[in-house]
Each structure stands twice: as C-alpha cells, then as structure tokens.
Amino acid sequence: MLEGWLGPWGIEEDLSWPLQDTRVLRVRSGHGEHIVKAARSGRPVSHHFTREIDAHLDVLAPLRRAHGDLPVPELEHHDRELGLIVTRFLPGSLVLGSAAEADPSVFEEAGRILSRLQVPGAVSADYGLRLAAAATELVGRARGLVADDRLDALLSLLSILSAPDAVAHRPVPLVFTHGDFQPRNWLVHDGRVSVIDFGRAAQRSWVSDLVRLRNQQFIDRPDLSEAFDAGRARPLTADDRELLTLETLRESVGTVVWAHGIGDADFEEHGRRMVERVLAQA
C-alpha cells in the first residue's frame, strides 16, 4: 500500500510509543518526509485511526483551507480498514522533556493554537449526564485499586455535580477537542509550536482539553497556566469550573483503571494523585 502511495520509501526513525497498538514511523520517499501510523500486525485496528482520519477530513483540512497555515500535520493518504495513515512530516522536537516544557511562551502559543482548533459544534442536552454516568461506572471498576474512602468521596462529589440544578443537567456546547492536549503532542521548531496526534479527537466540552495540563505541567507552575490562559483568551466561567471538575473526576479514576489494565504502575499512581487533587480542589 505505501509503495503505491509514496513510491520507493525507507524508514528514517521509529517513533512508536511503548505499550501502544500502533507503529509510528518517520519515512522518506521521493516526495519528501512523512509520518506513517500503522496498526500493529495481528491486532485489531484501533478506533483511534478512525478518530484521527475524521479529525483531518472533517475539521483540520477545512480549517487549513479557510485560514491558511495551520500548525498541525497535513493528511496525505489513509486507509481505515488497514489502519494506515500518512501525513506530511512536521519538523521539530517534542516539547515533553525539553527546556521548552518550562517556557511560558510555548504554553502561550499552545493556548492560541487550541483556541483555533476548538471549532464549535452542537449543544448537547445530556453530555454532563453521560459524563457522570461514565465516571460512576469507572469508580465501581476502581474498587481495590483506589482506597474505598477516596472512592466513596468521589461518589459523594458526583452526587453533588449530578443534582437536578447542577452541572450534569445543564446543556453543554460541544467543540472539536484534541483529547490529549499536552507537551508530549507538541513540537517546537525555530520557535514555532505545532500540535500532532489527533487519535483521541472528538466532540467534547472545551474544558476537557485542559484536564491533562492542569494535572501535570501546571502543578506548581502558575506562570505556565497564566501564559496558556493568555494565549487561549477564554476565561473559565462558574459553569466551566464545575464541568472541569466533572471532567477531571472521570479522567482521574479512568486513568487508574486504564493504566492498571495495561500494567503501567507509574501512570496508575499518577491517576491516584489526580483523584487526590480533584477531591482537594472540589
């Protein structure tokens, strides 16, 4: 398939993440450099391929046509059934683990990019209720992984957020979200920030894209949070803050359950710390 799309090609670098069901390769052909994402042989094609393809076709390509340059990869070829995506290579180094991860200007630019990407969608009458139901189900699955008193406290918080006049019952405007908006998916090149990997893209609340940053890079770094907010230029309302609590609650316990399932003990512990923070901040 790749030969038909690219002609002769060769691998320059394997960029695959551990514990993932996808191979990510930087390759070179006569047309230049590309990023190839491919489902690993013998495994089912992940739904992340469909999400990424849909993100490119339905949102990113129209944004590029409407507004010109967009700091995200450009889709060149895809095959849903095979689980195969080819994008034009974006030069740059990952922000994660580099000096750029502590640079407020990088976070300000990332905030500006996020504001461009979050294209408005429909208004959902039941988004909050579905989010609360998912969180409740995950709390049940986390029994034995998180202390019972912490899980009971999460359930109490969920009951508050799900009260008839609370956030779970309010209409939620949906937007296009990245789903994993954080420095491991940001590149920096010649002072310019770009965003990669749209495999978790979906229609969600806009605050859902804040959860991972607030539980990692923004801890003890208010300057990074302030810079990001300045770039994003969208202050949190009272409703936003309640919805962010609900999003974070679901994400925290979901992280514990998912990480335990794949045997990632460090990430499982990160989820437990998220649980403690969401309870402390509620």
Automatic annotation (TrEMBL):
Domain of life: Bacteria
Every Aminoglycoside phosphotransferase domain range: 21-231
GO molecular function: kinase activity
Keywords of the record: Kinase, Transferase
InterPro entries xrefs: Aminoglycoside_PTrfase, Kinase-like_dom_sf
Keyword Transferase: yes
This protein's name: Aminoglycoside phosphotransferase family protein
Phylogenetic lineage: Bacteria, Bacillati, Actinomycetota, Actinomycetes, Micrococcales
